[in-house]
Amino acid sequence: MKHPTLILSTFLLLLLLLLLLSISPPAHAAGGKWQLLQQNIGISAMHMQLLHNDRVVLFDRTNFGNSNLSLPDGKCVGNDCTAHSAEYDVTTNTFRPLTLLSDVWCSSGSVAPDGRLIQTGGFTNGERRVRIFEPCTGCDWKEIENGLAARRWYATDHILPDGRQIIIGGRRQFNYEFYPKSASTNKVFSLPFLVQTNDPDAENNLYPFVFLNVDGNLFIFANNRAILFDYVKNNVVKTYPQIPGGDPRSYPSTGSAVLLPLKNLKARSIEAEVLVCGGAPTGSYIKATKGTFTGALNTCARIKITDPNPQWVLETMPQARVMGDMTLLPDGTVLLINGASNGAAGWELGRNPVLNPVVYRPDNAVGSRFEQQNPTTIPRMYHSTAVLLRDGRVLVGGSNPHPDYEFTNVLFPTELSVEAFNPDYLDAKYTNVRPKIVSSISQAKINYGKKLTIRFSVMGTLATNSVSVTMVAPSFTTHSFSMNHRSLVLASENVKSVGKSAYEVEVTTPASGNLAPSGYYLLYVVHQQIPSDGIWVQIM
Fold this sequence. Notes:
Blueprint: H1 4-22, E1 33-38, E2 47-50, E3 55-59, E4 85-89, E5 94-98, E6 108-111, E7 117-120, E8 130-133, E9 142-144, E10 156-159, E11 165-168, E12 175-179, E13 189-190, H2 192-196, E14 209-212, E15 218-222, E16 225-230, E17 235-239, E18 256-259, E19 273-277, H3 284-289, E20 299-304, E21 313-316, E22 325-328, E23 334-337, E24 340-343, E25 350-353, E26 358-360, E27 370-372, E28 384-388, E29 394-398, E30 418-422, E31 436-439, E32 444-446, E33 451-457, E34 467-473, E35 476-478, E36 481-483, E37 486-491, E38 494-499, E39 502-508, E40 519-527, E41 530-531, E42 535-539
Parallel strand pairs: 32-42
Antiparallel strand pairs: 1-30, 2-3, 2-35, 3-4, 4-5, 6-7, 7-8, 8-9, 10-11, 11-12, 12-13, 14-15, 15-16, 16-17, 18-19, 19-20, 20-21, 22-23, 23-26, 24-25, 26-27, 28-29, 29-30, 31-33, 33-39, 34-37, 34-40, 35-36, 38-39, 40-41, 40-42
Pfam families: Glyoxal_oxid_N, GO-like_E_set
Signal peptide: 1-29
Domain Galactose oxidase-like Early set: 434-539
């Protein structure tokens, strides 16, 4: 008979082994803080875009019924005297109603080089509309009827190096078009890849993930695979392998994706990597419509899209997530936020909200890249959004998994609040290392491939070998995808002291519109991985 102590030791060893096997890959200690900004802005922030006047345009849809925000001066659109769009002023934490004349439900958009929001498509009377919002005091939406050649619902927009935007896909639209139009582009162009990735009864290829590659071609991901596409010649340049496992990552099996920060921008060959996270296993959408809510995917897939022989590398997240958002942060990390751990995108189809954001550190070793953050108390389910603000906070809003505004007797009431997530780099403990930009001034105009000197201050001791400059293009965010979002790291070429606690860093701006399409960017100085407040720059 074995000694009781030996039996107990063996049992404890087995118990420990089982515990270790059950734990997800290591996630560092929780960080970050939450701040409720507005309990009720009157509408649900299904779509959001930060503009260069530090105001966020947000909207839901015009056929939800009456919102909780009245149009000004007794104005009505038909029988509806309430707003379905608002402008949120980040600086003053105030908002005002905006007037939409057509339905923007599940639409898309991007910001033109001159700073105007060009917003496209939607539902019913909005499906071929182009809407323009100029960031100026008291301005409102302007709409162009039949501004699109095809109906666009659940499409994706991307700004191009020449300043035009391309609008790709949408429900039953296996094609793309451009805006503004010219004589040669006033039509649609076929994109068979969208036919090939269309699943019967589920689609799983709406709101495709689109990124401008460093060679000027477009990386287009839909369902579980991707292509590199020459939109000028209407030609597939490269076909990427399917993500291992083959599960869908696109709407309604909604994951999210980002182009990881571009670095070494003066190199002869610049690498570009895409990260796709979350989604729902094959069949989840159909099962959810029948009341069975499958566990979401708990993996991210990462690929070097510039490699001659690119392959996906899978990583495991601390928790499964569907309908999550991914936001590029100024310190070079990625924030995963919002969503659910079961179900799919669609009316009433998500369960078990994921309240903890996660920070992904792309430069860490595999297995140590995820850091779980402190949780919110507000579920952000279907139709939630998140955008980076100039001060480094992330604005979070939305969540309405219902065909109408529903506030009672439902699992997840329509959410009219907006809150801010403050990443750990904003903590007061970093005050002495946090840089503060002194000049250039905000709204500065910069050119391609030029030297740029930025003066900044640091209260504590400066680590000259730990200074860089980051440019971030703000995103048009809806349905778990941040369109046009990109980050460029400008390496420090020279850092020098110019006075007490005052320094200058010299960098070279991106060489072309293939790296940074013309327009407004947030520019940050980063010191020891702690970013300054941003300033706005317009690259031309």
